[in-house]
Amino acid sequence: GAKKVTNKATLWYVPLSLKNVNKVLEVPPIQYARKEQEDEGRKRYEEQKLDRLETKQRNGDMIFPVINPEPHTVGYSQSSLIHLVGPSDCTLLGFVHGGERALPRATAALVIPRAEARFESDSRSPPAYPAPRRFAGSVVTVSGRMTFTSNKSMEIEVFVDADPFVDEPRERYRAVSAFFTYVSLSKEGKPLPVPQLLTETEGEKRRFEEGKGRYLQTKAKRQAQMQQAAQP
């Protein structure tokens, strides 16, 4: 019956105008109880800003289907999910229910069935929203592919593209892009080895090395946080 912390995260929100969802509104300043709180928050903001910038630079990438891919290759891992967004999927303002919660679910549906193990979400990069718009009346395509695998985890890159056909210009746009990390677990919840990702093209090899850099950076950051939390 004891209560314990199982997860801790910082969530970021951006205020958008209701009349023009492409316009970002200013956030009123807040009063901090301690100067350290402001400094720590600003440090986290700058870190996630750099992560988001890296994701934005990849928004021109596309995921194309591969015919008869070999097991454990990038082509074998990738897939797409297409959904017509209707009124029941949205709020009164026309935005999709659930926000970012839909991305992990879609990612799992796309890639996890091919991973040959049980995986649980471990972390994600800050999603990039290059074109904030309402999704109602759009066909949304969620595409995912593995980019990197460590001994017991894998990184998945996800793109969300929207094709509006109601009350908007009918031009496809990149709505969201992000990276997710999943950890392989046994039925008892213990980490399991992950089949290593086979890279074939220069682009796949480059993305693998970039994913390795993100993995090592996240690992070092997590270790530093654990050491800081262990200090009296």
CATH level-two architecture: Roll
- Work out the number of β strands: 5
Low-confidence parts, pLDDT < 50 over ≥5 residues?
Answer: none
- Number of distinct helices: 4
The CATH superfamily name is: Hotdog Thioesterase
Q: Can you write the helix and strand succession as a string?
A: HHEHEEEEH
β-strand percent reads: 15-25%
Largest sheet: 5 strands, antiparallel
Structural class: alpha+beta
Output the CATH class name: Alpha Beta
Oligomeric state of this protein: single chain
Termini, distance in Å? Answer: 26 Å
Strand order of the largest sheet: 1-3-4-5-2
The average pLDDT is 80
CATH topology: Thiol Ester Dehydrase, Chain A
Radius of gyration: 19 Å
InterPro entries: Cytosol_ACT, HotDog_dom_sf
GO biological process, one term: acyl-CoA metabolic process
Protein name: BACH hydrolase
Keywords: Hydrolase
Topology:
Elements: H1 35-56, H2 74-77, E1 79-84, H3 102-111, E2 118-124, E3 138-149, E4 153-164, E5 173-185, H4 202-230
Antiparallel strand pairs: 1-3, 2-5, 3-4, 4-5
Plain-language structure description:
- The chain is of the alpha+beta class and 232 residues long.
- It has a single domain, classed as Hotdog Thioesterase (Thiol Ester Dehydrase, Chain A, Roll), CATH 3.10.129.10.
- It is built from four helices and five strands, in the order ααβαββββα.
- It has a five-stranded antiparallel beta sheet with strand order 1-3-4-5-2, sandwiched between helices.
- A hairpin with a 3-residue loop joins β3 and β4.
- It is globular, with a radius of gyration of 19 Å.
- The relative contact order is 0.14.
- The model has no long low-confidence stretch (mean pLDDT 80).
